[in-house]
């Protein structure tokens, strides 16, 4: 049995999850990364994607967009601007998120346009991944 | 001297008023509980966010490449005051206190020769500020249609602010809202959100050991706009809780006052009824004596 660590997933509106887990797979801005107990302290930003949490009672998936992950000795904290259990991410919600991302791209200041476009692409990929 | 009928009508109408204020008080109490819960569940996010950002700010802030949201534009000529109030009245001094604080700040800035711009969130604040500062208004956010304040509302406001900031419309943004302390105490508060200010925290030292991916600057640039939204969201929730708290105590007072008034009017009513009866008796008796 692998070591466990504290995992928290917080969105601005509520705490989505708080549990002892063995492994967290995070969609980082520079690529996915897996965090296990004893990981070096790390702060990374997120891209829209699926966050996989492996706990003693099986795996749980969350769809997250925007925010960052903080790993330290006490555990993993994911702060997502929007996060919801994968099962709750319906085509309708995804479409709404896509529309929002598109709007951001259109309105984006030139300096952040790249980031916004990337975000839109990630968002699309997320939809394809889940076959929505 | 009002007639018996008048008194009766008045008692009736005050009783109706009491019913309404009582109902409003109970609604506010229920909403307050929910608003407090919302404010509470938003706290972990905001706290973590601030902790990480202040850590980053401490390590990056000194350099020239620091983002403008943190370092500022290098000037403090134009101030944007974001006045956040309730959409409704009947809540004691809640809206007035926020407006008063904002007004004091506006006067102070104007006296110092600064340019003032005002953005209002909430109808009551707009009404209160328009008379004296109408010419400084640059916008208004209407939340009266919003049943439940969500993070999306805060994001909209934040996006508006950031666009204005990018366009160079202002140098410093301050939000005015009411901090919820308890049902009987709400503290009007001014908080500068752009450029971001952090209290020097002990986290600053600890943050040095983190690995950053991507670089510290990029993370900070990504987080600062979110920080603005988070700060606004927290303020909106605090405001909401304060509003309901203020309304609850205001309506509690009103209910009690109405009760006192009903007692007084009832006594007056009984006295005048007794006076009428006595009068009639005297007339009958004196009539009988005359015979």
Tell me the distance between the termini of chain B: 32 Å
In quaternary terms, these chains amount to heterodimer
Secondary-structure-derived class of chain A: alpha+beta
Radius of gyration of chain A: 15 Å
The major pleated sheet of chain B works out as:
5 strands, mixed
The average pLDDT value of chain B, as a whole number, equals 87
CATH architecture of the largest domain in chain A: Sandwich
C-alpha-based Rg of chain B, rounded: 28 Å
CATH class type of the largest domain in chain A: Mainly Beta
Count of spatially separate domains of chain A:
2
Q: Classify the helix fraction of chain A into a percent range.
A: 25-40%
Number of strands of chain B: 6
Helix/strand order of chain B, N-terminal first: HHEHEHEHEEHEH
The portion of residues assigned to helices of chain B is: 55-70%
CATH homologous superfamily designation of the largest domain in chain B: ATP synthase, F1 complex, gamma subunit
CATH topology of the largest domain in chain B: Pyruvate Kinase, Chain: A, domain 1
Number of separate strands of chain A:
8
Structure description:
The complex is a heterodimer of chains A (132) and B (291). Chain A is of the alpha+beta class and 132 residues long. Chain A has two domains: 82 residues, ATP Synthase, domain 1 (Sandwich), CATH 2.60.15.10; 40 residues, no CATH class. Chain A is built from two helices and eight strands. Chain A is globular. Chain B is α/β, with parallel strands linked by helices. Chain B folds into two domains: 52 residues; 220 residues, ATP synthase, F1 complex, gamma subunit (Pyruvate Kinase, Chain: A, domain 1). In chain B, 64% of the residues lie in helices and 15% in strands. In chain B, strands 3-2-1-4-5 form a five-stranded mixed β-sheet, sandwiched between helices. The radius of gyration of chain B is 28 Å and the shape is elongated. Chain B starts with a helix and ends with a helix. About 2% of the residues of chain B have low confidence. Chains A and B meet through strand 5, strand 7 and strand 8 of A and helix 1, helix 5, strand 6 and helix 7 of B.
